[in-house]
Write a structure and sequence with these properties.
The complex is a heterodimer. Chain A is an alpha/beta fold. Chain A has ten helices and ten strands. Chain A has one domain: Rossmann fold, CATH 3.40.50. Helix content of chain A is 30%, strand content 25%. In chain A, helix 3 crosses helix 4. The longest helix of chain A has 14 residues. Chain A starts with 40 loop residues before the first strand and ends in a 5-residue tail after the last helix. Chain B is an all-alpha fold. Chain B has a domain of 179 residues: MetI-like fold (Orthogonal Bundle), CATH 1.10.3720. Chain B is built from twelve helices and no strands. Chain B is globular and about 65 Å long. Classes of the chains: A alpha/beta, B mainly alpha. At the A-B interface, helix 2, strand 6, helix 3 and helix 6 of A face helix 8 and helix 9 of B.
Amino acid sequence: MPPEAKTAQGSGSGSPSVVPTRLEIKRSPSDVPLSPPEDVPVFQVDDLSVYYGSFRAVRDVSMTVCERQITSLIGPSGCGKTTLLRCFNRMNDLVEIARVAGKILYHGVDLYHPDVNAVEVRRRIGMVFQKPNPFPKSIYDNITFGPKVAGIKGNMDEIVERSLRRAALWDEVKDRLKESAMGLSGGQQQRLCIARALAVDPEVILMDEPCSALDPIATGRIEDLMEEIKSEYTIIIVTHNMQQAARVSDMCAFFTAEVNETSDTRTGVLVEYDKTEKMFSNPSDERTENYVTGRFG
Amino acid sequence: MQGRRFDAAGFVFRLLLLAALFITMLLLTILIIDVVTSGWSVLSTRLGDFLTGKLGSIPATSGIGQGLRGTFFIGLFVVVIAFPIGVGAAIYLEEYAPRSRFTRFIDVNIRNLAGVPSVVFGLLGFAIFVNALEFITGPRANGATVISAGLTLAVLVLPIVIITSAEAIRAVPESLREAGFGVGATRWEVIRSHVLPYAGPGILTGTVLSLARALGEAAPLILVGAVTGFLTEGARYSLESLQERFTAMPIVIYTWAGRPQPGFVENTAAAIVVLLVVVLLANTVAILLRNKYEKRR
């Protein structure tokens, strides 16, 4: 167990020239007319490292995620994208040996401060998983579970309809709300999972390769949906699909895996984080360029 | 592509597997036919008397009422004591306990306990429930009561209940737990609403099988002091009678099988048939319940 993991360490313990320090993200208002006039940071990731036991899965990530934008995390397998994503709602807490060093500030509050309740964090920061994972219950119960445990009083029928409408699923399922969610198609199940996440009215939605188990048509619908709900939610999406990242995201972070020669383990590092447009047209790092042009990964 | 090569090894293997199944079924069928034909004269002529009658020295008037009563209460003790404790321990082990060396140590020991011969549990029951706790289990009968027997058998099946329940809980997909945590449920809410309903059928099957095991045990009951002769106490279904001397079905069968009078051979066979039916009924209930809950997935 490396001792420096115990405290938030300063940057530059690795190779500082490789890892960009926090990027100043400024976007001119004329850039994308639909986005809000100014960028409000939601997450500020500061020198974040994640360990599984003594294995360091991700190191020294610093980035800022802004409100009502879609931020994509791309990179080859095993570069720590999912690990990082799961830090944003403390899902990594469920992995017993996982440890986090560094900071994630959520609206200025340290998510890993001892006083912060992880359950509360997950209510504000929802998650959609790689494989659609509806509860083996009715469509209706899938939606209402979150609001119920959150103690939300109010008309559940309304919440169900609103969530399903936002997830563009209402028309397909409105006549069979009491039927099992397991009877839906894969794409419908994934939209149900999005609706389930929306039902607790989160501010942020984390998506871990939400389309990797879906066909292109279902994928298109999810992407349209993301575009639609972007005006109300901040979305962070991990994707293996570079076209998807290029299509849907405003900001894009490229990660890669550094092989540690001595222990033969791979540690994920953030190579470049910038506007998606720039990342795909004129990246500053050669590795990003190689990846987005398909030369490796 | 034309003409099929004859897969000799595969054919022989399949034949061997079939033979294994056949031998099992044959032995069971012979056993059942043997006891049913042997006990038929009793079952067909005086079933009512036989089921309610008392133990006696005359074969034609002896019945198993006292044995059934003992077996009923033993089953009750197992259900009321071993099931909740066993399922609770399994939930703790699987969902809460840290994956430490100590947890593994406990896990291994529970597995070892499940393999301990039942006679040893009988000795344990004798030492603890009959002797040490005599003032609770039945001072008038020196502790050799159905309470002691029920507690002993509950302890006997406890490791089996824990193991089968833990396996059913382990079979719950991690994605289901994550879905629950992802919408902001606490661990307890995830367990109650998702893990237990999903694992329920498996837990039920395992526990009912262990109940069948408890109902068929004779050795521990002999050590605990089940009456192998005539039971003269008024064996009524009252609370006080729980603290009186007792007998149970396996003991009745064991006792009758050793009697020289010719009529007891038929009585023994009939008692075996009754015990088999009781166990089959318990298993049927378990299967019906399991099917009912599995459909709702």
